[in-house]
């Protein structure tokens, strides 16, 4: 059982579209002191349909979708090129909440992807300039050497381009909100996109 006070959740009062509820829950997670609430699991599948998952950072959520970024040549970039569909998972234990999102993924234009990169920290740019994500690494010394050079360039050229850096957007077809309950009467509310708009449905926990 949870040893913290969990917030209540009345699904009957939930907004008509999932983005508004996600935005509210995100703000509440921040207010509750949740560590790194913007981190999420990103699940993809390779060409053979085998699943893969990793933790990445949310770059934004708006009417166009949930955004994240990576190198186009990374493992997840290649998987998204082969199968442009993904799922996201947020877990905020400070409030016993989860949010699951899934849908098709598209890549943003290059100019928008570069703007996303250059709006981030010097360290983020240095990591992107280091590049070669998911390729075989010969030694940690090689990584240290390449990283030092990338940091120097990022500090010298804060607008340095990284052509492989790509901003991706997941357009949700389904969004599920899970509110934990100490008595195990968890509340699960799922939104599904339809031709008429969003349909809501409760699920057994």
TrEMBL record:
Entry cofactors: FMN
UniProt keyword Flavoprotein present: yes
Sequence ranges assigned to domain Pyridoxamine 5'-phosphate oxidase N-terminal in this UniProt record: 29-140
SUPFAM superfamilies recorded: FMN-binding split barrel
Keyword Oxidoreductase in record: yes
Pfam family, one: PNP_phzG_C
All copies of domain Pyridoxine 5'-phosphate oxidase dimerisation C-terminal, residue ranges: 165-205
Keywords: Flavoprotein, FMN, Oxidoreductase
Family: Belongs to the pyridoxamine 5'-phosphate oxidase family.
Domain of life of the source: Bacteria
Protein name: Pyridoxal 5'-phosphate synthase
InterPro entries cross-referenced by the UniProt entry: Pyridox_Oxase (IPR000659), Pyridox_Oxase_N (IPR011576), Pyridoxamine_oxidase_dimer_C (IPR019576), Split_barrel_FMN-bd (IPR012349)
